[in-house]
Amino acid sequence: MKHSKLITQLVGLFSLALILSACQSTPPTSRVPDITTRPASIDRGIYTPQMVTEPLDQHSLPGNFPLTTSSDDVRLQQAATLFQSGNPGLALDMLDSIEDNSLSPDQRTRRRILQAVILLQAGGSFQARQVLRGGVESNQPATLAAFYLMRAKAAMIQAETADALYALLKREQFLAANQVLENQRMIWSLLMIADTRKLKKIQQLDMSAELAGWLELALIVKGNSSYDYASTEQAINNWRIKNLSHPASAELLDQITKEASLTKPPKKVAFLLPLTSAYEPAASAIRDGFEAMNNEQPAGSRYQLRFYDYGRDADAAILYYNQAVNDGADIIIGPLERKAIDSLLTATEIHVPTLLLSPPAEQSITQQNLFQFSLSQELEAKQAAQRAWLDGHRYGVILFPQTSIGQRMATAFTQRFNELGGEIVSSESYAAKETEFSPVVRRLLGVDRSEQRITEMKALLGRKITTEAQRRQDIDFIFLPAGNRNARLIKPVLDFFYALNLPIFSTSRIFSGKPDPVNDRDLDRIRFPDMPWMIASNVELESLRTFLQGGWPNRNTSYNRLYGLGMDIFSILPRLQMMRENSLLHYQGLSGILNIDANG
Q1: Which end of the chain is more exposed for a tag (fewer CB within 10 A), N or C?
Q2: What domains can be seen in the chain, in order of their start residue?
């Protein structure tokens, strides 16, 4: 069918729109500018900023490659020390201050590597790719290998398969013989995570015979849709004969052949959802998105679906989970809400691959068969913190609703911003049903204290003075994790109380799901993350939405995000284990660029 092809294309087309302004994309900054302002006073509110004492992850640099050496410029050494002690902002500022002509060619290259490491740690893959763009000055094999590894990883995080492949192939030229197999395994994993459509598109580019051979082999393995091992083994053997000079190691080729014989996709998929409860709209949206994708596949390639409704009884999820296992489910998707998830994990050993649709109370997922895929507001808050930091902001305030999700978003933002070396100077909260925001905004921005000082000055002088109240000057942004209704009321109040020039960051809760240019004018300049399925606008995507959703009742609501989530669950099922084994593997979906981290 025409739309079957369209679905395949679109799933590989979009990348995560990290930050949007008034529902339009905002280009990432190319570097982190110097910050010279310091807070004059700190009202810590309910949060206590804490300095990170543990060394930050070096983002998988080779273990034998040091960030700096004893012979390096002292400022390079200081920058590495600052980064490893939890001060990435100061480390970047230090690196930016070093003049090129004071460094050797190798040191200039390692400075770029260190800049990329810091930016990747802060979620700035776009900025890291900019740093690593262009030629390389070093002539040291170890430095060159590390440089191209970081270039590959920055591209992988953005699901830019072609660029990552080019970088890994280039890296191999500078590796010792005993390092080549690890690099080739990375190449193969990258090929296996990508869509067939994407690989065929790369084939159309100018490339080396080496890359052409890798692509041909990958398409042979991916083409085994009927899982006929004998024919696939023969095709791989034919490839080996045809490509005798190809550098792919015999050990890896043997491994690929063996894995092809063991690959059996899940056919029976069980959904554990509260379809007769207050969560019904959310549960149905996930189900409908998955079914839409499944129904567009050839009849022989579709999953066999079975739905288990545990309704309002979270504890019933345990019984239905065990029933799904007994019914022979290859993978179980659900439960949806935290109470059911916590009950299940407390009472049951997970023996069947299970994809949770919300994070459990205990965030770390250690069981091998357990995965998590959800629209996490806490994760969005962390993304907003990263974007604020990458934009050069270091001191902010938070205004959040007095709800459990409001508290969690504020906490997640603060923790991540503190990890990056920023500081939340003050915070205020408001009742969920509040309609008068002037008092809380005046406190947040310090306008009340400014007004009080003016009153005291008038009383002291015994006459009128011509002056205006001011907001506090020790902050450079606001985090506003509000819903759409409250945000429309709060933003004009912030502008009125002298915050018109302060950047405001939020989460996708601020966007109702339906474009409303007239009423959303009050939200201008607010930056927030959202999925491409919700905000990307082009003819193909509109065609897909219309074809798949038709008269779906919740199309222009926030539940549409969960529909997109269901579509992406369909796409990642065959990739789950591969993504678990390598956290650098990223998949382009309609809900964004997806990967599995250490927490599942």
Answers
A1: N
A2: 55-262 (1.25.40), 378-530 (3.40.50.2300)
